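Risk register update: the risk of archive-format incompatibility is retired. Evidence:
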Amino acid sequence: QVQLVESGGGLVQPGGSLRLSCAASGNIFGIYSMGWYRQVPGNERELVAGITTAGPTNYADSVKGRFTISRDAAKNTVYLQMNNLKPEDTTVYYCNLHTAIGTAAGVKRDDYWGQGTQVTVNS
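Archived output:
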């Protein structure tokens, strides 16, 4: 069983910063990537930022230059530094862990999710 525990959300004024953390624990094998998603009510969950075990990162266009994702492999923890926050960044942010394990039948992929942390940007 894999558990993802998020922290760091909260209320901040426009232009402010927050740092989200997500620690993974449990029987974790074959980590391929970790990342952060967000979901506005009525919309699909969207990728905010992701980082693979090899190091490459990717970001949503809306957060490029403002958000930075990083990972501590030894702690199975991923961070999201969010700077210059805007009101449109307000929503719930979810941590994701994606695994990929080779089997005789092919690659078995799984996704694990955190419980979500609220980020509110409001003056």
